[in-house]
UniProtKB/TrEMBL annotation:
Domain Nudix hydrolase: residue ranges: 4-136
Protein name in the entry: DNA mismatch repair protein MutT
Cofactor: Mg(2+)
GO molecular function, one term: hydrolase activity
InterPro entries (alphabetical): NUDIX_hydrolase-like_dom_sf (IPR015797), NUDIX_hydrolase_CS (IPR020084), NUDIX_hydrolase_dom (IPR000086)
A Pfam family per the record: NUDIX
PROSITE patterns per record: NUDIX, NUDIX_BOX
Length: 154
């Protein structure tokens, strides 16, 4: 079996001490994910961030800087590399509504209070402390390793 590696461009959108996240529900469990998705061949990561955020939640963003890289290694079948960009919130797209068409479990987007981010079910969980550090102006770690491994950057 050929091993697939997929690049995923994610947006970390911070405004007024809160961050924008997609709320996903599955069998009563709630998790939050950063908006974004797969990079297409011939597309830059920053273009992928803009396209995916617009498609998922109907929000226009401007990627500012690459902040985090985290991997998801799932056996031989899939290896995902997430590139997380700090992105400026420009506003709602012309349609003025949340779209969320790509996954039936994605129910809405929410602004999460960053002060309480440690308690939120944001995945990958390794991002929680690093996002707080970023907002507080502290040193962050860019490469966070495999999301399934122990967080040594505590």
């Amino acid at each position: 079996m050929e091993r697939k590696i997929r690049n995923s461009a994610k947006a970390l959108i911070i405004k007024d001490g809160r961050m924008l996240a997609i709320r996903q529900e599955d069998n009563g469990d709630v998790i939050y994910l950063l908006p974004g998705g797969s990079q297409n061949a011939g597309e830059t990561l920053t273009d992928a961030v803009k396209r995916e955020v617009a498609a998922e939640i109907g929000v226009d963003v401007e990627p500012l800087s690459l902040e985090f890289v985290i991997e998801g290694v799932y056996g031989a079948a899939l290896h995902r590399v997430d590139f997380v960009f700090l992105a400026e919130y420009i506003g709602l797209m012309d349609n003025n509504r949340s779209i969320l068409p790509s996954d039936e479990n994605q129910v809405e987007y929410e602004w999460l209070d960053i002060k309480n981010l440690i308690q939120q079910p944001l995945l990958p969980s390794k991002l929680r402390k690093q996002i707080i550090r970023l907002v507080e102006g502290e040193t962050t770690v860019m490469y966070l390793g495999n999301e399934e491994d122990e967080d040594l950057n505590g």
